[in-house]
Amino acid sequence: MSIPEDFLKQLEQYSELSHREKEVFLEIFGLSKSRVNVAQELNISESNLSTCLTGIYKKFCITGNGPVKESRLREYLSKRYSQQKPSGDLTTDDVSDSIDTLVEEIRKEIKPYIKEKCGTMRVLDMPKPIELTGKQGIYTNVNILEAITGRRRLKVAELMQGCDHDNFERLGLSRVKQKRVSGLEVVQRYSKLMVLGKPGAGKTTFLKYLAMQCIEGRYQANRVPLFITLKDFAEAPKKPDIFKFIVQLLSSPGVTHASAAVEKLLKQGKAFVLLDGLDEVREEDTKRVLRQIREFSDLFHTNQFVITCRIAAKEYTYESFTEVEMADFDEKQIAIFAQNWFQLTDPVKAERFIQKLKENKSIQELATSPLLLTLLCWVFGDSGDFPANRSELYQEGLDVLLKKWDAKRNIEREQVYKNLSLQRKEDLLSQIGLTTFEQKDYFFKQKTAEAYIADFIRNLRNADTDPEVLKLDSEAVLKSIEAQHGLLVERAKGIYSFSHLTFHEFFAAREIVANSAWESLVEHITEIRWREVFLLAVGMMRKADDLLVLIKSKIDLLIAFDDKLQNLLQTVYNKALSVKYNHKGAVVRAFYLEHALFFSYSVLLDSCNELATALGFNIEVDPEIDFDDKLTDALEVVNSDPLECLSYALSLNLNLEPEFKKSLQNLKKQIPFCDNPEKWIKREDKTIDEWLNTLRILIIKYRKIGYQEQLNDEQTELIWNYYNINLLLLDCLNSDCYVSCEVRQKIENSLFLPIKVKL
Fold it and tell me: In this predicted structure, which of 266-275, 305-314, 591-600, 606-615 has the lowest mean pLDDT?
């Protein structure tokens, strides 16, 4: 039987053949010529002809020996051609009317099935499914990257462009520079689409959304959505091909004459074929499933296809499919998802959730992953807040990625590193995490990562230490970590990073705690980028006494030998002793230290009361401190109303020296535009400077806050570090860490004291 050349050239496998293989293929299987004739006409030897045929059989996945393979390929081609040929003598109008009626009937029959399978989602430990679409649905529109992130040919320096190694910007919310396109827009643009994405990126949810949009008539209303979970297809009894599997699916909802209906539907290009989870297919089924998809999409190429797969999970590429990548959520999408999630139970909680995320950049970064965002909403919904111990929250997120996500869906993946238990996987990631974090390698080359992995697995029991085997194993392990858990991600060709800086910090802290490397950790106490590592470490420790005492000692030594800074602490100490207060002494010292730094040395602080607030400061309790706070606020004319500040301070009616009180009243009168202080503040003459200088001198003279000595650059940096490390120490104490009462009390009592008055 001869098969038309045009048909053979449309086959996807044809494009994979070499030029010589194409010639042989068309002569033998198109024109049915003998091998001898083909060899003569193409002027090639029989040996070369056999080599070409071997390549052809391989491309078509034909197995067997000798003539068997040729007959099998002929049978395969004849079957596909017969399925392609139109049947009957219907006119174009008849066919059009007939197919439209069929589509309408099938859509009606399968709508309940599609709504049941695709209208809800259930993840993690949810007791019941939640609606995906509709008024109560949580679906959030996704964005697509049309260039696969891991295939960009960029260098580490280019990825780090605009970043500071010492104060690194978190990945996720703003690091992706390429254009993001609406998911629906991309599906409309391409008839054959392969959607890649990290674990938990929302691939299945997106495919379910497409099915629901189609069956509800909002998208592809003239087609029938066919949602197929590839894992179910691969493991179906008797291993049917995709055509038969679809027939079985449509038979259940009650489609009459399902086989004939499906054939007609597919031949007329009226199916919207959604193939979910190529990465979830077992290794032993992969080759068969890949071949089936290729043959099916090639045979029925006039239909629309969308396949989902994890990045790095399958190396196979379909020539006729366009590959795109699911983008992380941005801040707007995170907010919409949260509002959708909490809309029924507690709409106000959504606003609190969003606000809490903004206050905590580490947690906000995790929210860029739809799966982890779902976890965060779930956790927040129980208590209205995130756990005080962030290490426990991050561990829960890691558990989801490392074990629960696949286990909940009964997915068994190839265990390239099956000898690694969950504990050992975390140990490996911890070693990589700390080593790269210490070296400021937020991005690291693939070879570097593989070297770390090889170094780890060579020490495991029964490990093969042959260098070549280790190299191959380390490559496989790296790809498995990316595909199965998504914790290491290829950011550009051959360049990796942790999926989130939060997890990078977590694993670095875990390694430090595992080795009790406190001295090594404290060496980084002045580096802002290590702040989260400290907070995570104290949260992981069974008892944090040793680390906290070490931090306190480091703080004291930092400025112990600088006389001017010791004098500053002495001034603060003396001032605290001179006022009446109801707080602990450390709270008052913190208050006056912060005001001295701002007042005398123009050290830029986010808040003048951050240290004091961390110690439980309540300004309304102590009128004297309240008075001093308002006076120093009046100096910050850009962000405060000096008239209002002075008026409030004088209204406290403290027992002030008459001359001091009179001077303050005179300063108050000098503000000319009482109805609009901003006009006075914006004047560009010397009046403002003189007014501020007068107030500053009065505060120094009568309230003993600050003095006029200047600090050099080195001293300014020292006191800035002193301030920040104390703030870190207080944040550690206020976290959900375990520390003995004795150590906590000793640390708090000795805060902000000069060396000579240590308790």
Answer: 606-615
Give the C-alpha distances (Å, rounded to integers) separating 447 from 309, 425, 463. 25, 19, 20
**CA–CA distance, 104 with 319 (Å, rounded to integer):** 32
Nearest to 401 by CA among 483, 280, 517, 493: 483
| DSSP character at residue 195 | E
Helix, strand, or coil (residue 28): helix
Query: Under the phi-then-psi rule, with left for phi > 0, alpha for psi from -120 to 50, and beta for the rest, what region is 223?
Result: beta
Q: What is the CA radius of gyration of the chain?
A: 35
Q: How far is CA 106 from CA 90, 99, 116, 300, in A?
A: 21, 10, 16, 18
Structural tokens at position 730: 């207080």
- Residue 471's pLDDT band, with cuts at 50, 70 and 90, is confident
Contacts with 512 (C-beta within 8 Å, 6 or more apart), sequence order? 434, 518, 520, 521, 533, 537
Let me know: does 722 contact 555? Beta carbons within 8 Å.
Answer: yes
Output the DSSP codes for 315-369. Answer: ----TTSEEEEEPPP-HHHHHHHHHHHHTTT-HHHHHHHHHHHHH-HHHHHHTTS
pTM: 0.77
Q: pLDDT per residue over 525-567, tens digit each?
A: 999 999 999 999 999 999 999 999 999 999 999 999 999 999 9
Closest CA to 746 of 520, 553, 612, 525: 553
The whole-angstrom separation of Cα 308 and Cα 194 is 6
Using DSSP, state whether 375 is helix, strand or coil. helix
Nearest-angstrom CA–CA distance, 304 and 297: 9
Q: Which residues of 207-219 are buried (b: 16+ CB within 10 A; e: fewer)?
A: bbbbbbbbbbeeb
495 strand-pairing partners = 445, 492
Q: How many other C-beta atoms can be found within 10 angstroms of the C-beta atom of residue 353?
A: 26
Q: What is the 3-state secondary structure (H, E, C) of 523-553?
A: CCCCCHHHHHHHHHHHHHCCCCHHHHHHHHH
- Report the alpha-carbon distance of residue 474 to residue 465 in Å, rounded: 12
**Two tokens, residue 182:** 């609406």
- pLDDT class for 414, splitting at 50, 70, 90? low
Residue 453's H or E segment, with its range, is helix 446-457
CA dist 105 and 351 (Å) reads 45
Q: What is the pLDDT of residues 429-439, one digit of tens each?
A: 999 999 999 99
